[in-house]
């Protein structure tokens, strides 16, 4: 099977999101040589319509079929025989599967005197979420994008495969590496009493470098299961740092909800300006508030075999990359990493290595260590108190 692994300058990664246009119409995606007008109901009613047109790409893809059956995972969540821990675990595992995804972000409040709302953002994708680890108090989920693009004549491209983001879930965590700003992560101990019954979600970039950690707890009632995080700093996603440089971090929370046909992630974040020691700027530290909504709708009949092949072939390599970061988390209380060295982004270096034929695990580990260590600095960093 022919498929295209996105790498080098061809990567259209938007901090884990593809910067392409949302063209879904009702239950399917219409293949067309003309971009379908995008709608944004939750917007700035009196702003110029052209200026508030959502930004993103202009691609279309094949029709998809939504799964109209209530998912088995959602049905299991309704069981009265589960313990609290079992129900939490089932909610997390319910996020695995095949999805049509959509991503919407818009600034809702501006705090500066001369504030003008920027255009909102929309993107879409088709991706499968794999269960990487399933232990009693730890679950790891890997997202893999598999997309086809429609040409003007209606023909479809070979599948494009992108190793997307990963989410790790730890029950009653004892410590976390909190993002401080500008590439700095610092370990924070968690109070055992306060952490009782909670889950820490750690989100990783496409190259398995850390993005952020947050802690929260699941709430379950009849027909409703959601996890609410606390407020944490998060790095700017590519959709932001690729177009602006007037702030350094997002500060906010998110909520994950399991639905009968998939799941959603709602985000509420302030755009925070930091000084060179990662302290909030004394004057006008917050620029705006942003709302985000990501929908994961289950689909059936979509060909994810190219993603299955990629994950089967490169999974062992990425497991060694995960081991590198696990050791760093365990051994270092503070570290700093950059996304690019001598013009080479970390994802580019690792994506190239993922398909190399290393003869031994030792060779793989040495290559990963030599590569990633050029992007990472430990100790002696200026961080917040």
Any overview of this molecule?
The chain is α+β, with helices and mostly antiparallel strands and 385 residues long. The chain has one domain (4-303). The protein is 18% helix and 39% strand. It has helices at residues 72-77, 84-93, 192-195, 238-241, 305-331, 346-353, 361-372; strands at residues 4-5, 13-14, 17-18, 24-25, 28-29, 65-66, 97-110, 121-135, 138-147, 160-171, 175-181, 184-189, 199-204, 210-221, 224-229, 232-234, 249-259, 262-272, 286-300, 334-337, 340-341, 344-345, 376-378. A ten-stranded antiparallel beta barrel has the order 7-8-9-10-13-14-15-17-18-19. It is globular.
- State the low-pLDDT regions, or none: 6-35
Which structural class fits the helix and strand makeup?
Answer: alpha+beta
Radius of gyration, CA atoms, in whole angstroms: 21 Å
Question: How far apart are the first and last residues' alpha carbons, in Å?
Answer: 53 Å
Give average pLDDT, whole number. 88
Fraction of residues in β-strands? 35-45%
Which outline best applies? globular
Question: How is this structure best summarized?
Answer:
Helix content is 18%, strand content 39%.
List the helices and strands and how they pair.
Elements: E1 4-5, E2 13-14, E3 17-18, E4 24-25, E5 28-29, E6 65-66, H1 72-77, H2 84-93, E7 97-110, E8 121-135, E9 138-147, E10 160-171, E11 175-181, E12 184-189, H3 192-195, E13 199-204, E14 210-221, E15 224-229, E16 232-234, H4 238-241, E17 249-259, E18 262-272, E19 286-300, H5 305-331, E20 334-337, E21 340-341, E22 344-345, H6 346-353, H7 361-372, E23 376-378
Parallel strand pairs: 1-10
Antiparallel strand pairs: 2-3, 4-5, 6-19, 7-8, 7-19, 8-9, 9-10, 10-13, 11-12, 12-20, 13-14, 14-15, 15-17, 16-17, 17-18, 18-19, 20-23, 21-22
Helix pairs in contact: 5-7, 6-7
């Amino acid at each position: 099977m022919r498929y295209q692994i996105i790498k080098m300058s061809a990567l259209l990664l938007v901090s884990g999101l593809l910067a392409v246009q949302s063209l879904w119409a009702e239950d399917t995606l219409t293949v067309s040589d003309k971009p379908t007008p995008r709608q944004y109901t939750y917007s700035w009613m009196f702003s110029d319509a052209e200026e508030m047109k959502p930004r993103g790409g202009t691609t279309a893809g094949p029709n998809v079929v939504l799964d109209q059956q209530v998912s088995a995972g959602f049905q299991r969540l309704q069981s009265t025989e589960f313990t609290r821990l079992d129900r939490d675990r089932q909610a997390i595992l319910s996020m695995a599967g095949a999805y049509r995804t959509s991503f919407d972000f818009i600034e809702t409040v501006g705090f500066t005197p001369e504030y003008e709302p920027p255009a909102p953002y929309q993107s879409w994708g088709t991706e499968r979420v794999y269960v990487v680890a399933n232990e009693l108090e730890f679950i790891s989920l890997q997202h893999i994008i598999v997309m086809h693009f429609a040409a003007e004549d209606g023909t479809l491209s070979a599948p494009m495969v992108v190793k997307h983001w990963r989410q790790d879930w730890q029950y009653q965590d004892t410590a976390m590496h909190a993002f401080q700003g500008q590439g700095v992560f610092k370990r924070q101990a968690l109070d055992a009493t306060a952490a009782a019954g909670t889950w820490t979600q750690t989100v990783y970039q496409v190259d398995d470098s850390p993005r952020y950690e947050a802690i929260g707890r699941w709430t379950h009632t009849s027909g409703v299961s959601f996890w609410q995080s606390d407020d944490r700093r998060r790095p700017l996603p590519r959709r932001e740092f690729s177009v602006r440089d007037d702030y350094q971090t997002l500060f906010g929370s998110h909520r994950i909800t399991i639905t009968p046909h998939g799941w959603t992630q709602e985000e509420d974040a302030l755009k925070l300006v930091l000084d060179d020691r990662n302290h909030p700027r004394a004057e006008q530290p917050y620029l705006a508030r942003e709302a985000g909504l990501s929908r994961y709708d289950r689909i059936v009949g979509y060909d994810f075999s190219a993603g299955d092949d990629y994950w089967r072939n490169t999974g062992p390599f990425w497991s060694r990359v995960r081991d590198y970061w696990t050791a760093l988390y365990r051994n270092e209380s503070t570290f700093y990493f950059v996304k690019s060295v001598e013009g080479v982004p970390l994802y580019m270096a690792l994506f190239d290595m993922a398909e190399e034929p290393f003869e031994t695990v030792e060779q793989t580990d040495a290559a990963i260590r030599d590569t990633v260590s050029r992007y990472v600095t430990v100790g002696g960093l200026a961080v917040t108190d």
